[in-house]
Amino acid sequence: MNNESKAIAVIMSRVLDYPTQELLEGYQDIEEFVTEQVSSIRMRNEILERVKPLFEYSLLDLQQLYVDTFDYKDKTGLYLTAHELGDSRKRGAALIKLQKLICEAGFEYEGQEIVDYIPMLLELLAHAPEGENFERLSRRLAFAIHRILKHLPESNPYQRAVDLLMMFVFEAPETEEILILENEREEADLEELPYPMMYQ
Q1: Could you give the CA distance from residue 24 to residue 57 in angstroms, rounded to a whole number?
Q2: Residue 167: helix, strand or coil by DSSP?
Q3: What is the pTM for the complete model shown?
């Protein structure tokens, strides 16, 4: 990952986190960061043009949009292992492995979200050392971001911002890779329960 890709990953880790007043008031900081870290004027303009509409919302409206877009959504949620495994029991083991990877790289996660929270993983990738494990994590994130993007309507302002990750940070997953990963997912059992339930 080159320096410009890392800069975009850091920006998107902020943009995809739950909106706060601090975020909304920090657009100028993002502009300055982009100017310092991204040498290409075309890329710089693309980044700012795609994230700026989110900063034109009031805090309450942006929070509502965020919740409607990402919270508890199967196809656009912001949790890596949920995209990979769905409702599978394997998800617990995957979270433990991810926590171990973070610790082995010398990082300590102190956030309130679970360790597969995509905004946190974007920042991790931007600061992580080179290595096979982080290359694999990058491929995994590419799959999840690609899946999110595929299910976000173009009318949603988050869609154009998320697309920056596939334009400048990640390589799109191959069709075969997508099929393999999709087959790993388990859907939640949402069958109606028998009523009344009998307890013995």
Answers
A1: 8
A2: helix
A3: 0.86
